[in-house]
């Protein structure tokens, strides 16, 4: 129990201050009911378990990535967010994270038209998609009449027609602080991360990749229902970030 209390307070203090913390500093700042020597002993145990990392240029320690992954799984539990896009732009820059959202639209395929055996036009509620004519594609999409866009995209993926998925990027997407991606995120192409493909790469909730986390939830942005993603360094203070979003609501 002492070990968990010490680790939890070390994580919270580090996230707030972004500086290594010694046993004496942790006792003083968190008013822990343990002696510095007891805290120091637990630091050694936590270090041995890979939950904290000793910073050799100082006398302090920081939480490990494994410890932070567990911490974020337990603490990033936000919903009911309602914020403006202008406020998101400011928050993304303040916390140096990438934020993106995609408007949810229940677009229904109303009809499918063959234009002189040259093009296929898919007529949705408020938009349309144009494809090159192939008779097999024409018959396939006639079977999809009455389905919504998201379900159609899933079915396209199942029948291995991924080469035409790009044609279906008709939901409004907004991105904030793209500079974060240019500096840090190398696993996917930047074009993919700035497009609707981003929302297919991550499941709802938390995802981790090396030094980075992605958090995908439903949210209201400018009063519209959206899928919402934050991507940033695992050592960022996301509790403070989401508190800023709630205060801005």
List keywords for this structure.
single chain; 249 residues; alpha+beta; Arc Repressor Mutant, subunit A; 3 domains; 6-stranded mixed β-sheet; 3-stranded antiparallel β-sheet; 11 helices; 11 strands; elongated
Sequence-ordered SSE layout with sheet pairings:
Blueprint: H1 2-17, H2 23-30, H3 36-48, E1 52-54, E2 61-63, H4 65-75, E3 82-83, H5 85-95, E4 98-103, E5 109-115, E6 119-124, E7 128-132, H6 135-142, H7 149-158, E8 173-176, H8 178-184, H9 190-193, H10 197-201, E9 205-209, E10 212-221, E11 224-233, H11 238-248
Parallel strand pairs: 3-10
Antiparallel strand pairs: 1-2, 4-8, 4-11, 5-6, 6-7, 9-10, 10-11
Helix pairs in contact: 1-3, 2-3, 5-11
């Amino acid at each position: 129990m002492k070990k968990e209390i010490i680790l939890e307070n070390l994580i919270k203090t580090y996230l707030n201050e972004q500086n290594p913390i010694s046993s004496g500093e942790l006792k003083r700042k968190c008013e822990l009911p343990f002696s510095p020597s007891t805290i120091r002993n637990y630091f050694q145990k936590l270090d041995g378990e890979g939950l904290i990392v000793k910073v050799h240029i100082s006398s302090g320690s920081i939480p490990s990535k494994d410890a932070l992954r567990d911490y974020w799984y337990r603490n990033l539990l936000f919903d009911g967010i309602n914020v403006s896009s202008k406020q998101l732009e400011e928050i993304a820059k303040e916390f140096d994270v990438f934020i993106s959202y995609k408007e949810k639209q229940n677009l229904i395929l109303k009809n499918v038209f063959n234009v002189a055996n040259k093009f296929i036009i898919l007529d949705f509620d408020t938009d349309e998609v144009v494809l090159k004519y192939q008779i097999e594609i024409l018959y396939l999409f006639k079977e999809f009449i009455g389905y919504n866009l998201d379900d159609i995209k899933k079915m396209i993926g199942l029948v291995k027609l991924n080469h035409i998925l790009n044609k279906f990027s008709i939901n409004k997407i907004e991105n904030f602080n793209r500079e974060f991606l240019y500096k840090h995120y190398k696993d996917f192409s930047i074009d993919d991360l700035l497009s609707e493909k981003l929302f297919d790469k991550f499941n709802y909730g938390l995802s981790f990749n090396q030094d980075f986390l992605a958090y995908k939830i439903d949210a209201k942005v400018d009063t519209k229902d959206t899928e919402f993603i934050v991507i940033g360094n695992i050592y960022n203070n996301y509790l403070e970030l989401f508190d800023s979003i709630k205060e801005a609501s």
